[in-house]
Amino acid sequence: MISIKDAVNLVKLNTSPLLKKATKSVEKAGGYKLFADILSPINMPPFRQSAMDGYALHRHDDLSYKLIGEVKAGDGHEPELKKGEAVRIFTGAPVPDSANAVIMQEKVVVNGKSITILEQIPLEHNIRPLGEQVKAGAIALKKNTKLTPAAIGYLLSLGITEVSVYKKPSIAIVTTGNELVEPGQDLPHGKIYESNSKMLLSALYNLKFYDVTLYTVEDNYPKTVEKLNAVINTNDLVIITGGISVGDYDFVGKALKDLDVEECFYKVKQKPGKPLFFGKKADTQIFALPGNPAAALSCFYVYVYIALQKMMNCEDVELPRITGTSISNFEKKGDRPQFLKAIYNKGKVEILEGQNSSMLQTFALSNALVFAPEDITKIKKGDTLEVIQLPI
Questions:
Q1: Number of Cβ within a 10 Å radius of residue 299
Q2: Do β-strands 108-111 and 54-57 pair in parallel, antiparallel, or remain unpaired?
Q3: Taking every annotated instance into account, which residue ranges of this chain make up the domain MoaB/Mog (predicted)?
Q4: pLDDT tens, 296-306?
Q5: Which of 28, 62, 163, 344 has the smallest count of CB within 10 Å of its CB?
Q6: 201 belongs to a structural domain
């Protein structure tokens, strides 16, 4: 049994970036990182653009201008302004080349076919120059940039429809157990509804990992070996829930050994989630999580999350940790460090009741985990706590 710190370090050391290229449509590339620099195919803006509603002027020394027309957003015509002439213009509209300033409408008095400006304005005032954001042929976004909603919008504004990105891992979730029944079916005596696979699927989707396939296997050794061999050979990451402990019908550990999976660690001094396995075979990472739902989800956030970020070549691979002030009293049982379900709000932390590893009700209310080291036995109101913020 190893420490949490050693387990985290082993996940980091034994997980490498995928560094494989995939092509994605821009609108479906959110959350991916760019595989290469993106060069802009156009100037942005592609023309001199009005920054506001007002009047485009061909400036002269007088405050009065002859009004000769109008240009609105989307217009393709370009009036020719002589010195002392102006056109009505609107935000985003193309500024005629013969205009050299735009004055906002609040600083103009309209007199039929002429206008009077209330003050002189500098040349090029309120005009967005051609290529102000980016010039054609220049780097629009650099390699390794994570594609946020703003980045997606930016690329689409440049007319770019496809990008090369780092491939996200293909992931298999394998759930074991004869006691499991699919939700929606009748629940015979001795059975429970299976929730781990969809719970972990939801956590992965929330992190924008969508290449996920779900599998189930009963507590049968040959079938466990067959199923794990298949998913290990066809996926970048395999997550197994259940069957990793030492019961008579826990076959996962033996199966992984017989499949020549290299064990990086098995069993971590922590609560929940002591019977946690991490290993690898060739380029596939394998996590065997405890079957208890709250333990499985805790291990996902503390360990599997790190592997996912490492595979995506991210710099910050752990969930953010902050400090908060406890508004709860809590007595920690046992000598293992614990991850406690909690609610964090504006610097205050409430440790919730119902910390049992089989119970999801408390986890369903949580937005954070409090890390309680092994040397802490009691938490009191006012104590400063280490808080792991969950990505929910």
A1: 29
A2: unpaired
A3: 172-310
A4: 999 999 999 99
A5: 62
A6: yes
CB burial readout 161-179, b (16+ within 10 A) else e: eebbbbbbbbbbbbbbbeb
Task: Say yes or no: 186 and 283 in one domain.
Answer: yes
> How far apart are alpha carbons 223 and 352 in whole angstroms?
40
Question: Cβ neighbours of residue 245 under 8 Å, at least 6 residues apart?
Answer: 275, 290, 291
* Cβ count within 10 A of residue 331: 8
CA distance 5 to 168: 26
Residue 190 forms beta bridges with which residues?
none
Question: 351-387 in b/e burial notation, b at 16+ Cβ within 10 A?
Answer: bbeebebebbebbeebebbbbbebeeeebeeebebeb
In a domain, 124, yes or no: yes
Could you tell me where the DSSP H helices lie in the chain? 4-13, 149-157, 196-206, 221-234, 252-258, 293-299, 305-311, 361-365
Whether the bond into 290 is cis, omega within 30 of 0? no
Angle made by CA atoms 103, 107, 112, in degrees to the nearest 5: 90
CB atoms within 10 A of CB 90: 16
pLDDT tens-digit map of 174-205: 998 777 777 777 777 877 778 899 999 999 99
Q: What are 183's two structure tokens?
A: 């939700």
CA distance 17 to 165: 13
Burial 225-254 (b: 16+ CB within 10 A, else e): bebbbebbeebbbbbbbbbbbeeeebbbbe
